[in-house]
Structure formats: structure tokens, C-alpha cells
Amino acid sequence: MRASNSPWSVPAWAFAVAAGIALIIAFALYGPALDGPFLFDDLGLPFYAPSFARQPLLGWISGVRPLLMFSYWLNYQVSERDPGSYHAGNVLLHAASSVLVFILLLRILRLCSIDARKAVFPAAIASVLFLVHPIQTEAVAYIAGRSELLAAFFVLAALVIYADPKIDVVSWRTALTVLGLYGCAVLSKEQAAVLPVILFCIDVVLRKRSIRQTLMSGKRLYYPLAGFAVLAVAGIFALLARSATAGFNVPGIHWYEYLFTQFRVWFIYLKLTVAPFGLTADYDLPVSHTIFQNGAWIGLLGLIVGGAAAWRMRRRYALAVFGLLTFAVFLLPTSSIVPIQDLAAERRMYVPLLGLLIVLTDVLSRVKPSVGVTAGLVAALLIGSALTYDRAKIWGSDIAFWTDTVKQSPEKARGYTHLTYAYVRARRCSDAIGVAERAKDPIRNTPELLGMLGHAYACEHRMVEAVQAFERAVKVSPSVGRLLALAAVYRQAGREWDAEAAEQRALRYPPKTIYDFTQLESFQRNRAQTRTRSVPASPTGPS
Q1: Mind listing the pLDDT tens digit for each residue in 175-191?
Q2: Are 42 and 144 in contact (CB under 8 A)?
Q3: Do 421 and 394 form a contact (C-beta atoms < 8 A)?
């Protein structure tokens, strides 16, 4: 087979076979998570609120990330709140993206004048690693992680189109296709706005064009793309201005403190890529308030040294340098100056991992695939697959998931709160109480855990202790959900006047969380239908 006779460098049937194999591997590895429940921020997804789910399609897609919400709407039509179809959709997207990674790597290797036959081996190894790497588990097994998967799919499709070795001058057809895919990516997740930088790097680094040549040959793409990018960035900053979990209004951390901390986080991600052990859904990282705190300066020095080395090697190792640029550009939106409530999250590495795999592809293209090298690579893939399968089993159970999270980050309150909730939902009331009570004082006295402890006591009909837990939670941080739960346990304890007072007070607070909305809807339904006195509704999320 000659590369010149096929734009793909391999027969079309081979891609069909690769797609089938990828699908089988993906479902085999993530099988344990397919029946897993909604977890963590899944419970805060808009469609989890009954009032939202009943909206027409326009109501689903009229907010931010409309394509992401459209994909959730499709799942809701299939299974409503049964998480099975949502998990299956994530696995399908992951398998499809791994095939796109294979095609992309073949194309960029051809751009580097590497023979088509020689390109298949490194491209196949790197794309399989993308498929089976344990660091990808959070994005795939986490229903709320679909934003990463969907944006990545469109990003990879755009890169595949633009990395075609046959492109000399960008045609209107190519430009419009890439622009359309770019728009789809941004409408799935805002971080995809950086894609134009990677497209530019393909021309400058891989095609070895000057900036002037790049802009002339790609004027049909780059000029419209610049306008779209400006609009995308403006929209992102407008969204961040309204957000309390991402942006410059995140409480407790300044932009420069977040930046200093990210100098360390970059190397945590690199470590997890090479040695994916100690994965967790909730990293317990101290903030670097100054550049000299917690080793932030060491991280910065490492980034400077790495950047300088890449610059010196840019001509001899163009593909590896392009990979490092890809890694850095895709990681910058979440690991630079824009604070995010969670300092680190594995799902943020879903697309940046591509850059590191491009570096690996460069290395493998220079190594003769001997028996020893092949055996070592196969062993690495098998180990990665085993770790991913084990991690998927953890994601398949809320109790297992939060038990693991508490084990990995014992000083953080969120794991204890969610684990207590998981036990309450399973009606394992004494286990729920045990988890909440064994937490250390600062954690045990957070309003979220106190609220969950109240539900756990109510689950065991220990109403006096339930009242005390809810009263403490309300004293620390009153909310409509906690006050209505307190009113319900007051009634169960025979304290009618206190229950009425708590309800009246609750209705003065606007609902903010899914817990608030659920408790409010339950209260309104009960009052309208029967006005019966009952224990608090089983929570649909930590208070």
C-alpha cells in the first residue's frame, strides 16, 4: 500500500475494524461503571431537578453548553433518570475519540514525513493508551464529565480535518468544516476556545511555515476563526463573572494564588500520566499563597526549564515539541490564572493527554519495534487496562467511590458528606452515622455534614439527635433545604409550633442547590396533597 494512494495511509476497512475493537475494549473496561449511580456533581445537573426535566427541548438547550445539554436530553428521552444510558453515551464518545486520535496521529506523522507503514505502530500504541489510560476514568465514568468528552470529540475531529497532509491552501470547504466543529466544541465546553492555537501550531511547527505563509494559506480559516475566538472568549468571561465555582469571584483564593498552586498541579498531572496511582475524585491540595509556599517556585522552575529545553529542540524534535505545546495549550484554561473551586481534577487531563501521547508517538517513531520494546508496551497497556477496570468498579458504586475518596483525602469534608449520604440512600443508617461521627471536629461541624448526619439520625428514628444535628446545621448556614428538613423532624418529634416556624423561615430563603429544590418540591407537594406529617424527604444530594 502506498501512502499517496490513500489520504488515510491505511485502508478504510482498517478503521472500521479499529472502531469495533475500540468499542469492545471501552465497554469491557468501563462495564463495572455502566450501572453506577449519579455521583458528585451529577446530582447538580439541571435535569436532575424534576421541574427542569419536564421542560421542552428549547428549555434544555437555551442555557450554557447547549450541545452538552442536548446530549443529556437525548439520554433523558431514553431512560429519564436511569443513569445507564448516560454512562453508555460517555463510553461511546470515548471509543469514538480514541479512533480519532489514531487517525490524527497517522496524519501528523505523515506531516513529519514519516512513512505510512512506520506510522501505524506508534499511532496505534498511543491511541490505545488514550483509550485505556486510568487518568481518563473520571471523564468517562462521571456523567458530568461528558462536557470533556463531547468537546474533545469535536476538537479531535477538527484536528483530523486540518492535519490532512494534502492541504496546501485551505479551501472554503475545509475552513467551514473546521469552523463548524470548533463552534460545536465551544458549545460543549468553553475550554475548547483554545483550539485555534493548536491549528496554528500545526502550520508553524509541523508544516514549517512562517507566520505570514500560515496566514496567507489559511486566510479563509484564520480570519473568521479569530472573530469566533474573540466572541468565545468574551462569552467565557461573561459566564465566569456570574459563576461562584470558577472565575475571579471564587471565594477564598486570588488569581495569583491559584496560579502559584497550578505550578505544582501541572507536575501532579504529569506524575499521574506516567504513574497513575493514587487517583481520587477530590484532591486535597494546600493553596500556595506565595510563590515560595508549598514548593510552587520549584514547579515554576521546572516549567521554565522544560520550556527552554523544548525551544532548543524545536527543529530536531518538532513533533515532540508540538506535543508539549498541545499539552500546555489545552491545559492552560483550567491551570493558569482563572481560579476554579477544585484545584485539580483528573477529567481536565482528558484532552491535554493527547499532547503527551504525541510526544510518545515521536519517541516510538524513532525506535525500532523490537520484540522487547513491543512486549514492554503491551505490558504497559495491560497494566493500564487493569487499573482502569479497577477504577471503573469504584465508580460503579457510590459507597465504594466515596469510601475511596475519604481514604485518599481524609482531611476534606466533601468525602464524608457524600459517603454519609450514600449510606442514607442505601438505608444503611448506622453506617451513615458512623461515618459522620468519626470525622474530625472541623469536618464534623460543617453544615453539609451536619445536615447529612441529621438525615442519618432520622433514618434510624433517633429524632432528638436528628433535631439537634439539623439545628446546628441551620445555625451555621441556614438554607431552605435544611430548614424544611428541620421542620419535618420537628413534626416527627411532636413539636408542631417549631415546625411551622421553621417552614415559615425556610420560605424566606431562595433555593440555590439541588438539595434545596428537592426539599422545597417535596414540601409543596405534601402540603398541597395531604398535609400529613412525615420524616424529612430522603435527600437527593448533600445539603
Answers
A1: 999 999 999 999 999 88
A2: yes
A3: no
Buried-exposed string 356-381: b where 16+ CB fall within 10 A, e elsewhere: bbbbbbbebbeeeeeeeeeeebeeeb
Q: Model-level pTM?
A: 0.90
Residue 9 and residue 375: Cα distance in Å, rounded?
25
CA distance 273 to 349: 9
Give the burial string for 432-454 (b: 16+ CB within 10 Å, else e): bbebbeebeeebbebbbbbbbbb
DSSP secondary-structure letter at 295? T
CA distance 193 to 125: 28
Query: Residues of 470-491 as b/e, b for ≥16 C-beta within 10 angstroms?
Result: bbbbbeeebbbbbbbbbbbbbb
Measured distance CA(341)–CA(329) in Å, rounded: 21
Look at residue 44 and tell me whether its pLDDT is greater than 70. yes
Q: Tell me, what DSSP letter sits at residue 347?
A: G
**Residues 157, 301 contacting (CB under 8 angstroms):** no
Alpha-carbon distance of 428 to 394, in angstroms, equals 19
Given its phi and psi angles, is residue 494 left (phi above 0), alpha (psi -120 to 50 degrees) or beta? left
pLDDT tens digits along 63-74: 888 999 999 999
Contact 394, 281 (CB under 8 A): no
Asked if residues 122 and 377 have their Cβ atoms less than 8 Å apart, the reply is no
Residue 450 near residue 473, CB atoms below 8 Å: yes
Cα 102 from Cα 85, distance rounded (Å) = 26
- Residues 13, 85: contact at Cβ < 8 Å? no
Catalogue all structural domains in the chain, each as residue range(s) with its CATH number: 169-244 (no CATH), 256-363 (no CATH), 410-529 (1.25.40.10)
List, in order, residues 6 or more apart from 209 with CB less than 8 Å away: 203, 217
Mean pLDDT for the chain overall: 89
CA-closest candidate to residue 298, choices 336, 333, 268: 268
Beta bridge partners of 340: 246
Burial class (CB in 10 A: 0-12, 13-18, 19+), 17: exposed
Residue 120, judged by CB atoms within 10 A of its CB (0-12, 13-18, 19+), counts as middle
Q: What's the alpha-carbon Rg for the chain, to the nearest Å?
A: 25
d(CA 504, CA 489): 15
- ∠ CA 41-44-46, rounded to 5°: 130
Q: What are phi and psi of 427, to 5 degrees?
A: 60, 25
Calpha distance 181→437 (Å, rounded): 50
d(CA 198, CA 355): 10
Quote the CA–CA distance of 358 and 352 in Å, as a whole number: 10
333-361 pLDDT, tens per residue? 999 988 988 999 999 999 999 999 999 99
C-alpha cell, 227: 472573530
